Amino acid sequence: MSEFSSLREMSADLAKGAYSSVELTQAHLERIQTANAALNCFISINAESALAAATKADQQRAQGDQRATLGLPFAHKDIFCTRDILTTAGSKMLSNFVAPYDATVVSNMAAAGMISVGKTNMDEFAMGSSNENSFFGTVSNPWDHTRVPGGSSGGSAAAVAAGLVAAATGTDTGGSIRQPAALCGITGLKPTYGRVSRYGMIAFASSLDQAGPMTRTAEDAALMLGVMAGFDPKDSTSSERHDDWLDGVVANGIAVLDRPLTIGLPREYFSDNPNFGGIEAAKTELEKMGHTLVDVSLPHTESAVPVYYVLASAEASTNLSRYDGVRFGHRCEDPQSLQDLYERSREEGFGAEVKRRILTGTYTLSVGYFDAYYLKAQKIRRLISEDFQQAFTQVDVLLAPTSPTPAFKKNQLTDDHVAMYQQDLFTVPTSLAGLPAMSLPCGFSNGLPMGMQLIAPAFREDLLLELAAQYQRQTDWHLKRPEAVV
Amino acid sequence: MSQEPTADPEGESNEIDVGHLAALARLAIHGDASAKIADDLQAIIAMIDTMQAVNTDGVEPLSHPLDTTARLRSDEVTEHPDPAHFQSGAPATADHYYLVPRVVE
């Protein structure tokens, strides 16, 4: 086995008995143990439970179980609640938290026989674009250890890029799957809002949060999505929609794209930025593949970042009010009163960025400001959503950059919060509209990977995956590997 | 018709009262930290205020990305949680209650 084998390759090897799941899992754990000191992409490594699950998978295989997912190792972002295993959300507040139940994504992966080897580092409560907001330290980008991996799913992205795992779960509220995927040179898919259950996924902004796969190939993203997705009665916003292609994607893989597409280029996303060379090459490649590129306009794009920071911060200030030092999580020493208990537990338990967002949300929800900020932002959210609906009357999918820059230096943007927020420029509009979007490696800028973003109408992840798989059959950007990972 | 960006949409002071916000958010923030947070929030609010230029006359707010409503279910007990298990991570409990500092003397 190679450290850069895909899930599909490992699945085929397991099926023919080239190695067992226990051997495969052991190899993953050894590589993680060696590489994690330099990269810091895991908050916890769960060797015992992983080997127990791998042993069970091998037994099931011996009894005739032939599922493609059986015995495949992967990692969970440390935002998914796992019964009996630490779940921190990258926060001191939850540094001692063991969830009493499994998230639906966690139980879905386990039911498919997949092996979680550990839980990956992340910006605290998924708030950040660099992974520098983690209580558990910064993650290094495998392409250049002096640079950030992006965020908030930076640990998952770095682990996949460095070959520690072939796949990891991530979550995306305003770009937290796609932007780190772009900065680490991997494939990341944010599904349609409602496609994957949010039950047991620690909440940041509930009208935006969505889980999805982070992998090196589109085929592996499809396999992961097939396991993660599905209606869940425990999530009141889970979609009851049924798609035959999704039912069959684990067993059959991605269907071959059998028609030319019309691909829209939103002019608000393109500029003369020199980092966009990869996108220009991708346009040429897509045309060679027979697709037609046309210009479209998404006129409210410029307002997406301010709208996002109103809505996400407002929802965060509400969601994070549950951390009170009473029922679980961090409690301050020797509280003098209930008020003191609340205030000091929260002051000590939350990091600076989380406090900024809570206070921003508190401000915009305050008496006298609600209409001017929260309601105004909700109205512009509708305009942004309508921009996409209008564009999709003309085109099948949209193509755009994922991130304005490649991976930036650690500490480069930590003091300029507004500049850090602009990292989300190309990813938040899709989040506000609840649409599926995918980032794919499409080239390099000064030795650093760049990502292109494909955006589809709601519940058309099949289009994204088919086009991405076609692109990855014609190009090899997704096969480039960082040197000297360990 | 577009509105001019404004940092004080209700015509009130631009000054952000961090002490008041921190009290609302139940965060103990004092001294130097308070001044730094006021500066940070000022910059963030200025960035947010650029959206005031968008004309939203007659536009309905969108609270859910797919414009659907939350699903309801019948009012039936579906789980029987074990209180001891659910409270195993609590800082202080007794007889299935959570303990906090005395509220009433």
Walk me through what this model shows:
The complex is a heterodimer of chains A (486) and B (105). With 486 residues, chain A is an alpha/beta fold. Chain A has a domain at 7-258: Alpha-Beta Complex (Amidase signature (AS) enzymes), CATH 3.90.1300. Chain A is 38% helix and 13% strand. Chain A has helices at 7-15, 21-39, 47-62, 104-111, 154-161, 178-184, 218-228, 244-252, 277-288, 304-319, 338-349, 352-364, 370-391, 417-421, 428-433, 461-474, and strands at 42-45, 73-77, 115-120, 167-172, 187-190, 210-215, 262-266, 292-296, 397-401, 437-445, 448-455. In chain A, the strands form two sheets. Chain A has an eight-stranded mixed β-sheet, with helices on both faces. In chain A, strand 7 (262-266), helix 9 (277-288) and strand 8 form a beta-alpha-beta unit. The longest helix of chain A is centred in the C-terminal third of the chain and has 22 residues, at 370-391. Chain A is globular, with a radius of gyration of 21 Å. The mean pLDDT of chain A is 96. Chain B has 105 residues and is mostly helical. Chain B has a domain at 1-56. Chain B has helices at residues 18-24, 31-49, 83-86, and strands at residues 93-94, 97-98. The longest helix of chain B has 19 residues, at 31-49. Chains A and B meet through helix 10, helix 11, helix 12, helix 13 and helix 14 of A and helix 1 and helix 2 of B.
Average pLDDT confidence of chain B is 84
Say what the CATH topology of the domain at 7-258 in chain A is. Amidase signature (AS) enzymes
Strands ordered across the widest β-sheet of chain A: 4-6-5-10-11-9-7-8
CATH class of the domain at 7-258 in chain A: Alpha Beta
Q: Which chains share the greatest interface?
A: A-B, 78 and 52 residues
